[in-house]
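hiii so um. not sure if this is the right channel but i have a protein structure encoded as C-alpha cells and i wanna go backwards to a sequence. like what aa goes where. can anyone help
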C-alpha cells in the first residue's frame, strides 16, 4: 500500500511541475489611444504606453517596451522592433523598423530613422531623413541629427556630434563630444 501512495504522490507532483513549466501567454499592457491602424500591434508582446504604435503595421511583431507618443507613422514604425523605445521617439514611416537597440527620449524621428539600428541611441538623437539607419554604434545625446547624418555608423559617437547632412556617413572610429558638426560628403544615389 505504501508503494501505491508513493507512486500516486510522484505522479501528482510530476503533473503539477509539468503545468508550471508550460509556456504561458504574455499579455502586453496597451495604453489608451494606442495600436490604432490595420495590423497595428499584431503579435506585439511589449508594453505600449499612451498614444503609441499607430499606423499601418505599427509595432507589428514588436517585443520591446514602447513609451508615450512613440512608434507612430503612416507605414510600419517599430515593425519587428526588439529594443525599448522611450517617449516621443521612432515616429515616421518605417522608423525603428527591425531596430534592436534601445532608443531614448525624442530620438529616431523621421522617415526611416533608425531602421535596422543595433546601437544604443541617446536622447534627442538620430532625427531627420535616414539619419541612423543600419547604425551599430552607440550614439550619445543630441547627436546624428540631419539628413543622412550617421547611416551605417559602427563607431561610438559622443554628445552633440555629427549634426549635419552626411556628417558621419559610414563612420567606423570613435567620435568625441562636439565634433564633426559640418556637412560631409553624401554617397551618390543608386543607379536606376
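sure thing!! here u go:
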Amino acid at each position: 500500500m505504501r508503494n501505491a501512495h508513493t507512486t500516486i504522490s510522484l505522479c501528482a507532483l510530476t503533473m503539477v511541475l509539468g503545468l508550471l513549466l508550460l509556456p504561458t501567454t504574455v499579455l502586453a499592457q496597451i495604453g489608451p489611444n494606442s495600436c490604432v491602424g490595420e495590423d497595428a500591434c499584431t503579435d506585439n508582446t511589449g508594453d505600449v504606453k499612451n498614444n503609441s504604435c499607430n499606423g499601418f503595421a505599427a509595432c507589428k511583431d514588436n517585443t520591446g517596451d514602447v513609451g508615450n507618443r512613440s512608434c507612430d507613422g503612416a507605414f510600419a514604425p517599430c515593425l519587428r522592433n526588439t529594443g525599448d523605445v522611450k517617449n516621443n521617439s521612432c515616429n515616421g514611416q518605417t522608423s525603428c523598423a527591425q531596430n534592436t537597440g534601445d532608443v531614448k527620449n525624442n530620438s529616431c524621428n523621421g522617415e526611416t530613422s533608425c531602421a535596422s539600428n543595433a546601437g544604443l541611441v541617446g536622447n534627442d538623437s538620430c532625427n531627420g531623413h535616414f539619419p541612423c539607419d543600419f547604425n551599430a554604434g552607440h550614439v550619445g545625446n543630441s547627436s546624428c541629427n540631419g539628413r543622412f547624418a550617421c547611416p551605417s555608423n559602427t563607431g561610438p559617437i559622443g554628445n552633440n556630434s555629427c549634426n549635419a547632412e552626411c556628417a558621419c556617413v559610414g563612420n567606423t572610429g570613435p567620435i568625441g563630444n562636439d565634433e564633426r558638426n559640418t556637412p560631409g560628403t553624401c554617397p551618390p544615389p543608386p543607379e536606376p
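oh and Residues 101-179 form one domain.
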